[in-house]
Design goal:
Layout lengths: L7 E10 L3 E9 L5 E9 L2 E7 L5 E9 L4 E5 L2 E4 L5 H13 L1 E13 L8 E12 L11 E6 H9 L6 H16 L4 H8 L2
Parallel strand pairs: 4-9
Antiparallel strand pairs: 1-2, 2-3, 4-7, 5-6, 5-10, 8-9
Helix pairs in contact: 2-3, 3-4
């Protein structure tokens, strides 16, 4: 199997544009030779998430109503990286704004494409450790609840489908893998795994 592009792009036009995203209609020739329109949502910000884990193996989760899904969601602190902003600075900002904590260590643990059949949205997730109090200051439109939950319970919630946010799922699974394989401090790993 090769990695060549079997699509031919003929033209593109913007159908919708706002500060967060742009909807582009691309006229293409698909791999079957048919001419058609392919709609792509182009995101203007990099998605950034932070999995904050205390020395005792507890995770700071943020709960909020997600309008597109019409349901409440428990997830890690997340936000959009402004143009020209360092993703690490964005992670620090979102961690303090949404969870009210700061971190001595922020380590990138996973990068991913989100819903890549219709969007170009990309994400980076960090593991935050060495936590200490900060200033909880969510944006005015963010009506947030905060919980401190043992990592093993968060992992069980991911496995059971009670936590479905893609970035949180990926970060929790990666952090679990890191704890099991010795990629993080042994004391923290033991606390996370309940050993």
């Amino acid at each position: 199997m090769t990695d060549h592009n079997p699509w031919r792009f003929l033209s593109a036009k913007t159908a919708f544009d706002n500060p967060w995203l742009r909807l582009v209609e691309q006229e293409v020739i698909d791999p079957a030779g048919q001419q058609r329109i392919y709609g792509i949502v182009r995101f203007k910000k990099l998605a950034v998430g932070v999995l904050p884990v205390t020395d005792e193996g507890q995770v700071h989760l943020v709960g909020q109503w997600r309008v597109p899904l019409s349901r409440y969601s428990w997830e890690m602190p997340e936000g959009g990286c402004e143009a020209g902003e360092d993703p690490l600075d964005c992670a620090r900002r979102e961690l303090e704004e949404e969870a009210g904590v700061r971190a001595l260590r922020l380590e990138p643990i996973v990068k991913m494409d989100l819903s890549n059949s219709v969007t170009d949205e990309q994400a980076i997730c960090y593991l935050a450790t060495g936590l200490f109090p900060g200033v909880h200051a969510p944006e005015p439109v963010e009506v947030l609840r905060n919980r401190l939950v043992p990592f093993r319970e968060v992992l069980a919630d991911v496995a059971a489908g009670r936590i479905m946010d893609a970035m949180t799922v990926a970060a929790v699974l990666r952090a679990h893998h890191m704890a099991v394989t010795g990629e993080i401090d042994a004391g923290l790993a033991a606390a996370m795994l309940g050993k």
